[in-house]
Structures are given as structure tokens and as C-alpha cells.
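Quick question about two entries, pasted in order.
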Amino acid sequence: MSQRQAKLIRKAFRTCPLLLIAMYGRVDGKNYKAIRRPKNKLSVLAPDKRRVYQRAKGIIIALVILAFSLLPMSTGHMHQTRAQSPVDTLIPKIIKVESNGNPRAVSRKGAIGLMQIRWCVWKDELKKAGIAKHRGELLDPTVNVRAGKFVLAHYLKKHRGDVRKALHSYSGGAKGYYKKVMEVHNEEF
């Protein structure tokens, strides 16, 4: 058995001590290290039974190795799940209200892109944060959303997490903006 296989098996046994007990007979309770049965226990059995148990042990080892080789694919999504911040939940709604999903939208006041960022207001902060170096970069949807997150996070921090006040500031003081954003349903985008 290779070192890699042995490492995978030890990893399997740490998560499933019952499998270890089934294969080796007992487990050290502290760290689930295998304590092998003496080899002569199989010699008590008839030769044909001995082969069956030895094959079964090999099959179990192969199945454990196979299961753990597939494990990263089956649980990879679990690393990405995390609680969303208020900024992350509001971004799609703001995009729907501000530009209706048009990345090339430009308002009469000069607000640009999906999240309608006003370059004349935010250029110094966006340059300082390394998000955008010039106005044209805000037409790129990725840059625009990063800039929008930056602006919204700034207002949330300024208003100590009060979403209503933060959205009011984000919109430039537009009346009813909070209600408009909150009425957007997740199914709409």
C-alpha cells in the first residue's frame, strides 16, 4: 500500500471510526489510530474463507479511497456558502432599479453603468481604492459592480448599518428609493 493510500485511509477513518472498527477490530479513542489485529487471527479460518475476508478488506480499502478521491467534487460548494452581507443582497436589486440591467446605461446627470456610479463624485475614492482609474472603466460591468459595492459599503458604514439611510444617500436623496429597491423581487433578475 502506498503512502498516499495509507494517508487517505487514515483520513477516512478519522471521519468514520466504525469503518475502522469493522476492518481492524478496535480504535484508540483519542485519535482514531488503527491498532491492527494480529495476522494469525485469519489463520483460524479455512483457507477459502480467509481469501474472502482478505478480498473484502481490499474492496473496502478501494471503496474508501474512491470515496475520498471524489469528496472534493461533491462538497466543493460547501466552502462557498456563507452568510451574505447586506451589500451582496442589495446589489442585484439596485442594478434592477438603477439601470434595469443595462451595462451601458448613462443618466442625464452622468451616472454610468449597471449601478449608475457618478464619476464626478467618486473618482478620487475609486482611484484610491484601485477600483477604476478613469471614467470609461465604469462601463465594464465587473468594475461597475465593484464600484457600486464600494459606494454602498461606504454609505452603510457612514449610517452605521442603516440600510434605509444608506440607500437614500446612494440615490442622491431621491424620495421613495428605499421602497422601490425593496419591492424588487429576486425572481425579477
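Here is the second entry:
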Amino acid sequence: MWRLKIANEDGISENKYLYSTNNFVGRQIWEYHADAGTPEDRAAVEAARLNFYNHRFQVKPSSDLLWRMQFLKEKNFKQRIGGIKIEDNERISYEKATITLKRAVHFVSALQASDGHWPAENTGILFFLPPLVMCLYITGHLNTIFSDEHRKEMLQQRWWMGITHRGTQHHILGLFDWVGCNPMPPEFWILPPFLHIHPALDDMNPMPQESHQLEVRHISSSYQSVAASN
């Protein structure tokens, strides 16, 4: 069962290369514990996953359900402030606004982590993770850094990686077999846009220049990471 670990809750740093000057305050990391939780907890997690899957086209964000369920149970949270319903064209009174605010604060306070911050999903930074994963693959440390459960989750979510545009030409790094690519050398995509043979000028392949620049940046960052590692 996946558990969200806050800061250095157990007082043990499992990674000798990982250090902090503030005891990892603000750090949040998902850890998998095979024996964690009760059968009811595991059933609730699977029910939440199934509900998310069944409504994935209507509600795409995860809503942070897993860590919310974990925190609310750990703090024995119960919403004791009744909800207020405002009818159409009804005037919002000071009393109703105050009750609603107290109800929201009561709930949000229960979601605060032990070190003071509020955990949340921020997929924006995931945009920079693929080059790091590539470096782990190239250096042979992928299975060392990622546990079996981490790799399992990555494989389960790999369907979204089937992107057709050429910004995902991982064969340039030797991460994908060339037999699955168009017969075109990768250097062709790095040509300057003022050349008449630039691929972005092809009507059959209207790929924006931003994608070419983005691909070059991805490749460059990956090479720099590999070169800087030992």
C-alpha cells in the first residue's frame, strides 16, 4: 500500500546520498509498504482507483485522494460543522459565510502535514523527469533507484506515452529501437529553420518550430546530466 512520507518522519534517511539542512522539512515522497493498512484501507484505495478510472474522462485530476484519505484517517477527522446551502437569488448573510469558512478551515487544517506544509500534486515538475529517467537507464541505475512497485506504476501509466509527434524521438539517445522510427537521421531535426528543407516547412508534417527547439533542449539536458554524473 502506498503511503505518503513527510519530511523525515521515522528519523532514518534510507539514502546515504540524501541529506538536508532542515531535516527534510517540506519534503514529501511516496513509499510502498506491502503490509501497510488494514484490509478495509486497501479496499478503500482500490475503490478510489476504480472510481477514478471509471470517471477519468470527466475528472482528469487525481484530486490527491490517496493522501487525503491517509491524512484524514490518521487525524481521525470528522466534519462536525454542518454545510450551508445557498438557494438561487438568496442573499448571503454574514453568519452563513462565517459557518462555511469555519467548515472549510476545519477540513483544510486536517490536511496540513506534520511539518506545516500542505502536500499536493504538482505535475508541472514531471515535465523535467523524463531526462532524469533516461539518465538512470543509460547509467544502469534504473532498477536501483526505482523499486518494483514504482516500476509497476510507471508501466501501468505508460499508455499516455504513445505520442505521435517527433518531440519524443528517444532513439536519438539510444533509448528506443530504430525499427520503430521513420527512416530519417535525427540530425535532420536540428537543421536551422531558414533552410528550405527544414521539416517544419513540409505541409505534410506541420510541426511547429517550438517542438524542435524543445526536443533539442531535452536531448541537451539529458547529455549534460549524463556527462555530469559519475
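Reply: Confidence is low (pLDDT under 50) at residues 202-214. Strands lie at 2-6, 28-32. Hope that helps.
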